[in-house]
Structures are given as C-alpha cells and as structure tokens.
Give the backbone structure.
Amino acid sequence: MHKDIPVPANAKLIESAAYSDHPTQSRSETYELKHIGGEQGLYPPEDYFQKLHEVGWTELKEERMGHVHVLNKGDVRIAIEIREDTFQIFLLHSDQDRHQNLG
C-alpha cells in the first residue's frame, strides 16, 4: 500500500480496497494476525507501534478513537484499526486532497 508502512512478516493480507469517493480514506488493507490486539482488541501491540516509531511514524494521540490510531510521517497520514486477530491500515487523503475534493 505504501512503502514506508511496516507490516509484521507473519501477517496475512486478507483484503485490499480503494475508496475513490470517501472523504478521508483513499485505500486500505486488512491483515490477519493472531492475538495482535489481545482480547477484543483492547491491547494495542506496543512492539508494532514501536517499530512504526523507529521508521519515522508519529502517533497523533489526540486523534485516537478507540481501536483506531492515527499516525503521520511527512505528508502521509494513516489510520490503523486494531482488533483481536486482525488489523486494518487506512491510507488517508492529505489535507490538500481533501480541499480539492471539497471544491
């Protein structure tokens, strides 16, 4: 989806989607990875978020919404939704893209 987003080696891609008319999302990928989020997805995988941080991603904690974590690297924004045995990565439209789409 994006070369700078690390994905655990043992994660299995189960769905990929593109959103041409969604106001904030441009693409997403859903992966299966046993026990990534703990019971009911309540425990975010600290080691995965540490790896994201090491390669330059910064979590925007003020934008976190429950299971959804928003991260930024340069002009790229992503959201990662953590569930019990799956996680989904969303590539978000940039502010410039959103302004163009809103006219």
